[in-house]
Amino acid sequence: MKIVVLSDHTATRLKEKGQEREKEIGNLEDQYKEQERVYTKEYMELEERTDREIRLLDARIAEEKTKNDLFWTDKRYFRYIFGCIVSFIKTMTLKKEKADLKERLSRKRTQNDRILRSMRVNIASRSVYVSDDEKAFIAGSEGEKKVDDLFMSCPDNFIFIAGYKNFKGEIDRILVCPHGVLAIEIKNLNGRITVIGDSWSIEKYDNYGNLVESARPIQDKGGRSPSEQVNRSADVLHGAEFKRRFPKVEKVARMALCVHPKSKLIKIRGATVDIIADYDSLKDDGWNKIAQVMPNRLQEKRLTDEEIGQIAAFIERDHNYHERKRENRRR
């Protein structure tokens, strides 16, 4: 089987998220350095002011002692005793002021250290933090690899196209083969999935079978379910130009594939795509199950190798056309 990668949007989005995180971490580092500089300057100024005030207090304490010693020298003993009492009170007051100044300096340092340490912890946690978007992209990438492995054993004249995108969105994988064209939407979701028409929901259970999340809609950021995502993009692909060039392909078949090992399809009713399956159901003899719904499965309708190559080339040109339009809009 031949694999054609038009674009790896998952890897691109992960790279963009990584760059955003690096930029955010860089900003946090700059803020930390600036805050550290400000705090160092403030602390040094406070330390200098505190030292100056402590020296003044020490001078006043020494002055009280000298003054009291003079009373003893002059044999003014009663005045000396009274002065000792007064001097003791003043000295204790000055020492208390001195201790308060040292405490203020220590408190300021502790406060600064606590804030700076909190900023470092924030930077460290942001470095290892994986956002919900990144988790979704990683899960998507792992799911796509599983599907690639699933189809790897297909014959050489099968072409697997990754990353096709038009103005309605991306189709994760497109299979072009003698049996027709199949658009595949891949979901790597852990839980029990219910599908009613275009409404998809998932329930999650823990390892003990307890319900931890009930009936959450499965939607992209535009509010579209997996079947709506693949249908809208496939409708655009199978437009007038495609039909004119390849009338033999009456339709583009659509499949929604849930590849997480713990995903279970518990209810499907009124599905709007041709196949909804989980990975386990396709691991053994999966291709024969898919072939049953392919539009060109009958022998007389099957595509030749030349037609397969032409369709794959058309899909690639169509992708490039929409890519150029997106680039022009961004400018």
What is the CA-atom radius of gyration, in angstroms? 37 Å
- The strand line-up of the biggest sheet is 1-2-3-4-8-10
The overall pLDDT average reads 83
Strand tally is: 10
**Count of helical stretches:** 8
What count of structural domains?
2
Label the structural class: alpha/beta
- Note the overall shape: elongated
The helical percent reads 55-70%
Distance between the termini: 38 Å
Order of helices and strands: EHHHEEEEEEHHEEEHHH
Uncertain parts: none
How is the biggest beta sheet arranged?
A: 6 strands, mixed
- Strand portion: 15-25%
How would you portray this structure in words?
By secondary structure, this protein is an alpha/beta fold. It folds into two domains: 22-128; 132-330, no CATH class. The chain has helices at 9-73, 77-128, 132-151, 226-237, 240-245, 279-283, 286-291, 305-330, and strands at residues 2-5, 159-166, 169-177, 180-187, 192-196, 199-205, 211-217, 252-258, 264-269, 275-278. The strands form two sheets. It has a six-stranded mixed β-sheet, sandwiched between helices. The chain has a four-stranded mixed β-sheet with strand order 7-6-5-9, with no helix packed on it. Helix 1 packs antiparallel against helix 3 (132-151).
Give the arrangement of secondary structure elements.
Layout: E1 2-5, H1 9-73, H2 77-128, H3 132-151, E2 159-166, E3 169-177, E4 180-187, E5 192-196, E6 199-205, E7 211-217, H4 226-237, H5 240-245, E8 252-258, E9 264-269, E10 275-278, H6 279-283, H7 286-291, H8 305-330
Parallel strand pairs: 1-2, 4-8, 5-9, 8-10
Antiparallel strand pairs: 2-3, 3-4, 5-6, 6-7
